[in-house]
What we know:
The protein is built from 3 helices and 7 strands. α2 (48-61) packs across α3 (114-128). It has one domain (37-128): Bacterial toxin RNase RnlA/LsoA, N-terminal domain (TATA-Binding Protein, 2-Layer Sandwich), CATH 3.30.310.240. Helices cover 36% and strands 35% of the residues. A 7-stranded antiparallel β-sheet has the order 1-2-3-7-6-5-4. It is of the alpha+beta class. A hairpin with a 2-residue loop joins β6 (86-95) and β7.
Amino acid sequence: MRKFYSVVMVILFLSQCCGCAAVVVAGASGGVAYTLTNVAYKTVNYPLAQVKLASHNALKNMGISERDVRPIDGGYRITGATDRLTIEVELEMITSKSTKISVDARKNIVVKDKATATELIDQIVRILQ
């Protein structure tokens, strides 16, 4: 129990001093990480254009309808939706050969769907490979 409280205290400390601490979850998700606000993210070793195309295909394969695609600073924001979720995929060019994928899947302003966000990233990675 003491170890649990120590871990909680470290996480709370990091969230206060770093602004947006991240937790890495390894395993089936292949190292997809999450911010404290449950936004899943992963950097892949593929150029932005390839990741954008793979993202469109992954959304389609998962039955998520694409609502909007907008350029953002250094990348794109793709917005999609299901009957129950709003999905935001942000693609940010890190270098000419690597891209950061961030996925925010939410039911409402408070409730997030981490499993769907993780699966979408996993699908994007599978399409790229």
